[in-house]
Design a protein that fits this description.
Blueprint: H1 2-11, H2 21-37, H3 41-69, H4 81-87, H5 95-121, H6 128-158, H7 170-175, H8 180-202, H9 206-219
Length: about 240
């Protein structure tokens, strides 16, 4: 998962690691811990295979969207899949990346199957005390990972929503999916999609708040420089109006 994320970051020219790499890693370890605690090897293998498959699909989708018009996937775009399917012709399908990802997945899947079969043929018999130590270790790993996630989120919010003329606060990026590339670069693949899922579920009404603030802004005739706006000056001198159909 980490290698796939690094590969995607390099392809999207986002650098090597996200700003809050520990937040991203803690989410990966939380997912891994849940998988390890599952007592059945087959169910473990199934979840690992599904998680890697989802990550690879999002890798491909993100690269395609980013190459075509500088965007990445967010969960509020799911209702656009039917339209996207008709638009993705062979000229925009990036077959080379698709082949690489499929080959890589087949290799990973073969490894998962081999490990699962080996566990079935040669079950390891631990002494009771050792089994208890393993379970405790996994629970401690889960506890540390979840604590790290909470601590990192608190650190982000502690900085507040103060926005300078050339940047947007990390709290703003965590609470909204508007600046997707910046959010991905800040929180990483797993961090960005965790935030995106939480924002989609909780719907902090951030979109409505931003829309209302924009309506008030223009109704008041504030067309001059107003540095109180959260997004003011983030791309000074490079304003572009883009209409996408």
């Amino acid at each position: 998962a980490i290698l796939l994320e690094v590969a995607m970051f390099l392809r999207l020219d986002l650098g090597l690691l996200p700003k809050y790499w520990l937040y991203d890693l803690a989410i990966i370890l939380t997912i891994a811990g849940i998988i390890f605690i599952i007592p059945n090897h087959y169910i473990q293998a199934f979840f690992v295979a599904v998680m890697i498959a989802v990550q690879m699909v999002l890798f491909y989708v993100n690269y395609s969207l980013f190459t075509l018009y500088g965007d990445i996937f967010s969960f509020d775009m799911i209702n656009l899949f039917s339209e996207a399917k008709t638009a993705m012709t062979k000229d925009f399908s990036f077959i080379w990346l698709l082949v690489v990802l499929i080959v890589a997945y087949l290799v990973i899947f073969a490894g998962i199957v081999a490990i699962t079969i080996k566990k079935r043929r040669y079950p390891v018999s631990f002494r009771k005390n050792f089994s208890l130590a393993v379970v405790m270790m996994l629970l401690i790993m889960q506890g540390l990972s979840v604590s790290t996630i909470v601590a990192q989120r608190n650190e982000v919010y502690a900085q507040g929503n103060i926005v300078s003329a050339d940047s947007v606060s990390d709290a703003f990026l965590m609470d909204t999916s508007i600046l997707k590339i910046a959010s991905m670069k800040t929180f990483g693949f797993f961090g960005y999609y965790t935030n995106n899922i939480l924002n989609t579920i909780t719907k902090h009404n951030s979109d409505d708040v931003l829309l209302d603030s924009a309506i008030v802004y223009f109704n008041n005739g504030k067309t001059h420089d107003e540095s109180c706006s959260q997004a003011f000056g983030v791309d000074k001198g490079n304003n572009v109006i883009m209409v996408m159909m």
